[in-house]
Amino acid sequence: MIENLKEISKDTLLQEVQKFADAKARFVTTVCSDLGDKLEVTYYFNYSPGVDMVALRMVVGKDEEVPSISGIYLTAVLSENEMFEQFGLKVKDMAIDFGGLMLLGKDSPVKPMVKDDAAAGKGGE
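Request: output the structure for the sequence above.
Response:
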């Protein structure tokens, strides 16, 4: 269990992230996990000085679209593009959208980290 974790919804994501920006917290990273029929997305923040992390977690359906936090923390474009490429997480309004080609090549497996689509990522073989 993660200490300092707050469960949120995609509808409150931007409001909650803005609170961290207003408090001058650093955006650290975002982690996505495949839960089978849903995706779990956890955003990590840190206040300086110190190493204690604070996290926001939301669970969304694999077909749902979530808002980008890159308008608040530009560095989030890296993890948001990665979550799209690796898990198929649909992120709306990313400041920089690499179109699925930030980490993966044109011939790479599609959504390689998604459990359900493991076979589909290899052309259904």
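The chain has a mean pLDDT of 83.
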